[in-house]
Backbone:
């Protein structure tokens, strides 16, 4: 049997996407409380994210980055999305978010600093997995915004990042205009 590079690379990309999602979920978290959710997107869902990014790009000044990044999503086989739900740490003396305690911050809608830092740790863990497997990737807030707008997680999330991944002769994530 002969396996072509196209089929082998797509299969490898999906395996790495699963490892990335797993790394994000098992990344260290403040107080050991899990607030991380993950998705892997391809096909129509990935296309819907790119379309939403284009819509955002056209909705106002200084949003061209969304359109540029939509092209990167189009050039990717998969997108790994990582989100955080809002679950304040419940501390009475923390102040990391700038408020006296979690109760004061919750009244204002300010996200828990621990939740947001957990999202960053999870996203970096996922990107590290991709890099360790020589898979081209790029962490994008623009993808996360589109995923959040589309409600793809099916529940309320606080913030989200997206990581398109690719295995081509040249990374589509660099030499961007």
Residues:
């Amino acid at each position: 049997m002969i396996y072509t590079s196209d089929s082998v690379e797509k299969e490898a990309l999906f395996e790495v996407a699963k490892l990335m999602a797993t790394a994000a979920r098992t990344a260290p978290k403040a107080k050991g409380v899990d607030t991380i959710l993950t998705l892997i997107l391809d096909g129509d869902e990935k296309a819907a994210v790119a379309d939403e990014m284009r819509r955002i790009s056209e909705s106002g000044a200084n949003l061209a980055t969304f359109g540029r990044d939509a092209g990167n999503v189009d050039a990717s086989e998969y997108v790994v999305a990582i989100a955080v739900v809002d679950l304040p740490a419940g501390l009475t003396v923390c102040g990391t978010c700038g408020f006296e305690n979690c109760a004061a911050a919750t009244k204002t809608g300010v996200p828990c600093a621990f939740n947001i830092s957990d999202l960053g740790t999870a996203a970096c863990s996922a990107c590290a997995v991709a890099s360790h497997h020589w898979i081209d990737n790029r962490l994008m807030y623009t993808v996360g915004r589109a995923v959040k707008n589309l409600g793809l997680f099916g529940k309320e999330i606080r913030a989200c990042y997206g990581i398109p991944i690719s295995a081509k002769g040249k990374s589509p994530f660099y030499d961007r205009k």
